[in-house]
Each structure stands twice: as C-alpha cells, then as structure tokens.
Amino acid sequence: MVLTVIGEDRPGLVQTLADVVTAHGGNWERSRMTELAGLFAGIVVIEAPDDRGEAFRGALHELGGVLHVGVHHAPGRSDAPTGQVITLELLGNDRAGIVKEVAAVFSRHGVSIDELTTDTREAPMAGGVLFEARLVAPLSDATDLDALRADLERLADELMVDITLAAS
C-alpha cells in the first residue's frame, strides 16, 4: 500500500509513523519525504499483512493529531517502460507556468514523469529569484528521444531557461 503523510514539521514524525508500521507487521519499502513551508510531507510504500489491514488503518487514523495519513492501494506498475531513463535539469528566472510548460512537452510525447524536484533561490549578484528543477522520466522503446529533445530545446528558448538533458 502507499501512504501519503502530511503534518506540521517537528522532530519524531518519521519515528512515529515507523513505529505504527512496525507494530502492525509492516515493512517500510520506499519513501520520499521532505519539509516544505513548515509542513512535513511524504509518500511511503509499505508492505503489510492483509490480516492486519483494519487495525493498521485504525492506528494510522489515530495519528491525525500529529500526521494526517492517507492509505492507498498501489496498483503496481505492469507497464513499466523498458527503454532509457532521461534526467532533465532546468535553471532560469522564476516565473509562473514553467512546470506546466515542461510537463506539457513530456505529456505530448507520452512520457510519464517519475520524479520531479523544484526549488527557488535568490539569484546571486543579479537579484531576483531563480527557479530550478530536476526531473527523471523513463522512456518507452517507442519514444522519439530526438523529437523530445528538440521540443525541450525550443521550450528552453521560449522560457529563456537553461535545460540540460541526459539519457542513460
């Protein structure tokens, strides 16, 4: 199952969640967690015994005063792409719509984004705010990497940002 968690950031949140997972025979498999704007948020993949599902959900619900936890059943990924994985790094002046435009290019090419990390920071010496993003996406064998690269380069020119694309 997949848990989504969010709560006011403070020490001990991960331990609190891990205690509940372990107490109900669960195994913490994968997670992505971060602090953003004073809130702690994350996604956790848990393997838990079916016979403890209701008790586990109840214990997670009781964390509502500390962490709000959503429980989702993971469908798995039966159609996982088998081709290359690309990593895009973007840096430029911050403005509304950058993520929308980049995501639209990937969507038009039928590419699903596996990871996206974004941040803003003060531009050294020049003033203003810089936007930076790192995106990881697997490509299917049918993806035209040259066409995707051309569309991203066109977009970089339009948005006046630097984009680095690496395929592995």
UniProtKB/TrEMBL annotation:
<dbReference type="InterPro" id="IPR016867">
    <property type="entry name" value="GcvR"/>
</dbReference>
<feature type="domain" description="ACT">
    <location>
        <begin position="87"/>
        <end position="166"/>
    </location>
</feature>
<dbReference type="Pfam" id="PF13740">
    <property type="entry name" value="ACT_6"/>
</dbReference>
<protein>
    <submittedName>
        <fullName>ACT domain-containing protein</fullName>
    </submittedName>
</protein>
<dbReference type="InterPro" id="IPR050990">
    <property type="entry name" value="UPF0237/GcvR_regulator"/>
</dbReference>
<dbReference type="InterPro" id="IPR045865">
    <property type="entry name" value="ACT-like_dom_sf"/>
</dbReference>
<dbReference type="Pfam" id="PF01842">
    <property type="entry name" value="ACT"/>
</dbReference>
<dbReference type="InterPro" id="IPR002912">
    <property type="entry name" value="ACT_dom"/>
</dbReference>
<feature type="domain" description="ACT">
    <location>
        <begin position="2"/>
        <end position="74"/>
    </location>
</feature>
